[in-house]
Write a sequence for this structure.
């Protein structure tokens, strides 16, 4: 099935519409001109929340994913139930100084400065197949940092999964050759 056919098939799924309608858009938050995609309203709707997790689980079951890496903080909401359902371990990718013990870090550039993701040393073994999960892809900087971090320790990142994509920010283009699966695109 081609990517276009796969996308059309996904759009036929009534669950996508329910997920999309449960996401609140907050204008001018956290600053003027930003249309914030608020998933807390999705979390308040048990059916929409379950449908989002189920769609990811259906996609990744049987794909030999051994690691689900969730990006702080909203990747921690969707990543663990996906990992449990597909029989993978969950690895938190955290902001600096949040993980005890030895960590490996990856800095990345934001529109207003830099940030960093950290992961425990030894959490992922070379050759493990990883899925990176977050709530949203905008410019793609955070997902790229997560991919780099996992690949530096020898993991194979098979795909990135997000609930929401903001296509006009072209984050997908920054992921190089890594596939991206999203449930909802903003208009």
């Amino acid at each position: 099935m081609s990517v276009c056919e796969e996308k059309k098939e996904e759009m036929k799924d009534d669950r996508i519409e329910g997920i999309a309608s449960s996401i609140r858009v907050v204008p001018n938050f956290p600053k003027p001109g930003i249309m914030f995609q608020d998933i807390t309203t999705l979390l308040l709707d048990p059916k929409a929340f379950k449908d989002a997790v189920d769609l990811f689980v259906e996609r990744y079951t049987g794909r030999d994913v051994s690691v689900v890496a969730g990006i702080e903080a909203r990747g921690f909401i969707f990543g663990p139930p996906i990992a449990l359902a597909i029989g993978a371990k969950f690895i938190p990718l955290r902001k600096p100084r949040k993980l005890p013990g030895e960590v490996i870090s990856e800095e990345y550039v934001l529109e207003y400065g830099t940030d960093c993701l950290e992961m425990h040393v030894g959490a992922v073994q070379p050759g493990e197949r990883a899925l990176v999960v977050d709530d949203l892809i905008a410019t793609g900087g955070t997902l790229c940092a997560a991919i780099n971090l996992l690949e530096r320790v020898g993991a194979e990142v098979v795909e990135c999964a997000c609930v929401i994509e903001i296509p006009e920010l072209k984050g997908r283009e920054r992921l190089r050759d890594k596939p991206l699966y999203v449930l909802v695109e903003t208009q």
